Amino acid sequence: MSVPRKPRVFLVGSSVKPQMDEQLRAVGGMVADLVDLVGQATTDDLTALAPARPDLLVVLGGDGTLLSIARHLRENQIPIIGVNFGKLGFLAEFNVEDVRTYLRGLNGRAPLCSERALLEVAVENAGGASHSGLAVNDCVVQAGPPFRMITLAVNVDGEPLTTVMGDGLIICTPTGSTAHNMSAGGPILLPGVMGLVITPVCPHSLTHRPLLVESSSVIEVTAVRCNAGTTISLDGQVSLPMHAGQKLIVRRYPHVLKLVTRPDLPRWHTLTTKLGWGQLPTYH
Q1: Choice among 63, 138, 167, 235 that is catalytic
Q2: What CATH number does the domain containing 85 carry?
Q3: Strand, helix or coil for residue 134
Q4: Which of 59, 156, 208, 234 could make a disulfide contact with 203, Cβ separation 3.0–4.6 Å?
Q5: Is the residue at 282 inside a domain?
Q6: Chain centroid offset of residue 176 CA
Q7: Hey, which bits of the chain come out as E strands?
């Protein structure tokens, strides 16, 4: 009888969390008998990641760390186990003890993954593309200082949709629907929904509402009027200046984030327990 091959695992830790080198060593020692540990690194130097060719990443930090790693992987997405050392842990479902339990239970099987859409973002000047990047959660145009209203013309699949005057615009994936989009009054989408959300931020209008479009849509946002500090933000981590006349182009990236999920948790666990969705008021 053949012995199941141990998964090749690489550990990544947030470079901004305290004592992360010690945490990485501790987790490595905890799982060393269950996996083929092929390397470890912190987020400030990931040069060793690609040559290690891991089957699985264990990412220690929190949702922000996981977002940055997913963008770093680009087309080379591999399953990620997120270990929460942060606050909310909406994407990073595991704690340190959970990781060992989960890896022991794999027993040679492929991990169960939730496939999450990514956004491909390009900013074009009149002469062509000037910058491109990826986002897991969202691409947000923010008015910025001096905080006057900005004007954005929005096209979808080459057809004019609307012009938004206000504080900005959010374009998000289903994963990002519980981030900035939710705070701005946009809808919450389950990860498997094939769609993208367009949510105006504080529009100076009674008629603008969040809009769900097909995941195949190409969304173009032209800056008609901007502030000196108007900014495009990717996942709240990468910032690009936006100037009048520039065009922002957002479409679904052809590759997906592979997020390992805990099989012992109910489907609605994170939404109800961490965000408190649907909880009844407390009566006294």
Answers
A1: 63
A2: 3.40.50.10330
A3: strand
A4: 208
A5: no
A6: 6
A7: 8-13, 36-42, 56-61, 80-84, 113-116, 119-125, 128-135, 138-142, 150-156, 159-166, 168-172, 195-201, 211-214, 219-225, 231-234, 238-241, 247-252, 257-260
Burial class (CB in 10 A: 0-12, 13-18, 19+), 2: exposed
Q: What is the C-alpha separation between 235 and 69, in angstroms, rounded?
A: 12
Q: Give tens-digit pLDDT for 60-111.
A: 999 999 999 999 999 999 999 999 987 777 899 999 899 999 999 888 888 9
Q: Give yes or no: residues 232 and 244 share one domain.
A: yes
SS3 187: coil
Query: Which CATH number does the domain housing residue 230 bear?
Result: 2.60.200.30
63 is catalytic: yes
For residue 178, the 8-state DSSP code is G
**pLDDT, averaged across the chain:** 93
Closest CA to 23 of 65, 60, 63, 67: 60
Domain that holds residue 266: 8-116+256-274
What confidence tens digit (pLDDT) does each residue in 233-263 have? 999 999 999 999 999 999 999 999 999 998 8
pLDDT in tens, 159-217: 999 999 999 999 999 999 999 999 999 999 999 999 999 999 999 999 999 999 999 99
